[in-house]
Amino acid sequence: KQWYQRRVAITAGICYLAFPDSNSGCSGDTCYHFRIRKEYGVNKKREDITGRDSQFYYGYVFFRQTKGEQFKRGYFQKSFVLLTRKPYVNLFSNIVQIIAPQFFESGKVAIEVAMHNFGSWGAIVPGKSYQVPLLGQVLAFHIPSIKDKTQVAPKEFPTHALAPKPVVLRSIVEHDVYNTLRPLLPHIGVLWEQVLLCEPIVVFGTSPSATSALVQAIVSLMAPLRYANDYRPYFTIHDSEFQEFTSKTHAPSRIILGVTNPYFNKALQHWPNVVILDTDPDKTLKILNPKEHSSSSLRGKPGFYTKYKPFLSKDKQLRKLLRSDRQRPAEVEDILIRRYLMDLTHTLMIPLEQYISSLMPLQKSINPFRQPPLLQQFQHDAFIDTLTDSALKMNTELKGLKGDWKALYRKFLRSPNFELWFQNKRIEANQRIELLHVQQLCDADIYSWKHEKHEVEIVDMLLWIRDRYDALGNLGNYPDLQAHLKNHIDTLLGVVPTDLQSTLKPAFNL
Questions:
Q1: What is the C-alpha to C-alpha distance for residues 291 and 306, in angstroms, rounded to an integer?
Q2: Closest CA to 152 of 138, 171, 168
Q3: Which residues pair with 140 in a beta bridge?
Q4: How far apart are the first and last CA of the chain?
Q5: pTM above the 0.85 mark?
Q6: If we measure between CA atoms, which residue out of 484, 495, 487, 434 comes closest to residue 459?
Q7: Alpha carbons 469 and 134: distance in angstroms, whole number
Q8: Nearest CA to 292 among 284, 282, 279, 301?
Q9: CA–CA distance, 457 with 455 (Å, rounded to integer)
Q10: Dmax over Cα atoms in the chain, in whole Å?
């Protein structure tokens, strides 16, 4: 009914996602998030490098349902939804949990104060830490940057003795991976492979808070790699893509879905990987044969229904982490599980990174007066040939990881996750080559080169250096290199005839 900072068209799709299914039985306060295509009327904006999805919006929901005879249907039901392009799940979920209760109590004034607080935050820049006010509370968080090699904790700011203690968010994206994944921890290696290879997975729970949290945790399993495929933390039968995802006329879409409506128990029975959560969040789920997944009951028996045969065996390190005789704080368990998963992904990527390095051109082959070379083509078979038994043992068995690594690599190379990773690596490598090329051009002896050169050759070189100058601006901030290129331009302008100088100088006024 009320819409603030309106930049999108309110639609039935957003409205359905803003409320739990009627069968969920959610009472009190329920928090969750969803992911929605821009086709629902969201205006197209320029792409933002700090956001992950140019075609999706994220909705962060705070739903309240309380009994009351004064209400027409005997219940107070209202949702507060924050829509954004950013996938900062933990940050925006905390923001919604601060604003929504005060909005329900005080109405529009809470929104106005929150908007005033947001205005005082300044620009949100990747790589910076923030400590900011919001409705009487203080949030401390760090915005990740592509230059961050590991998770960076928020910077500590000096605080006044009477100021509220900051709510420190260790990560603005993931929340509590350990507790969320607890029912599936013994099978985390299987899930890691399925996410890595973009296998279709559906998570069936009793509430959108449970499904959205688990879907988000599953997507994050392959960090620091980015998941390339579609996923919907909370999905309803009213979505425009419902027919496509539930169709039995073709193979299931490579997507991860979180659902609560019992109808999905029948509609998605043909999916190869189905997680049905237990009402007890601490109960470990067993791997079950999909044939045991019966659609006769509303929700089905809790379990992890899959026929997937993992390429890797469960390693010793994971067994140690899951030993029940060790009692650790949940925060420590969360850090250990994240570190294990990140090490697993790094282990997979080491041979790929090494192969990419071999595709880089030799520095001596870069001619400053010619177009810079590009990264060589990635040859799948050539890469597989580099995976000798000795190399694989050195990289994996020291960490207790055994299995058919070559088969895993072959399948990974055909996945969208690899395509996205290689696309980014190719851009990064070509930018590095271009920077080396500019550095060589800066070091070139232009003064000696210009002797015995015709005017046409000098003008062509001026245009070439100007092109390199402009390209350098897209590679980052390199004032010293720009100064060298400008000196080269001034040197060449000084040797052309005066009448030609007056024509060229306006075009080279850098």
A1: 9
A2: 171
A3: 131, 168
A4: 53
A5: yes
A6: 495
A7: 44
A8: 301
A9: 5
A10: 96
For residues 14 and 83, give the distance between their C-alpha atoms in angstroms, rounded to a whole number: 10
CA separation for the pair 87, 52 (Å, rounded): 7
Closest CA to 42 of 70, 17, 71, 72: 17
The single residue listed with the structure tokens 């100021």 is 163
Q: Report the distance separating Cα 66 and Cα 435, nearest Å.
A: 61
| Calpha distance 48→123 (Å, rounded) | 13
Minimal CA–CA distance to 290: which of 309, 305, 310, 302? 305
Lookup: tokens for 503: 């024509």
Nearest CA among 147, 195, 170 for reference residue 341: 195
Distance CA 353, CA 12 (A): 46
Burial 212-247 (b: 16+ CB within 10 A, else e): bbbbbbbbbbbbbbebbbbbbbbbbeebeeeeebbe
Residue 461 CB neighbour total at 10 angstroms = 18
Half-sphere exposure of 462 (CA within 13 A, CB side): 25
Question: What are the pLDDT tens digits along the chain (510 aa)?
Answer: 555 555 555 566 788 899 888 666 667 889 999 999 876 444 444 333 334 456 889 999 999 988 777 667 667 788 999 999 889 999 999 999 999 999 999 999 999 999 999 999 988 888 889 999 999 999 999 998 766 655 555 666 555 545 678 888 988 988 788 889 999 999 999 999 999 999 999 999 989 999 999 999 999 999 999 999 999 999 999 888 899 999 988 888 899 999 999 889 888 888 999 999 998 888 999 999 887 766 555 567 899 999 999 999 877 777 777 775 667 788 888 888 898 899 899 999 999 999 999 999 998 889 988 889 999 999 999 999 998 877 777 666 545 678 899 999 999 999 999 999 999 999 999 999 999 999 999 999 888 888 878 888 888 999 899 999 988 888 888 999 999 999 998 888 888 888 888 888 887 775
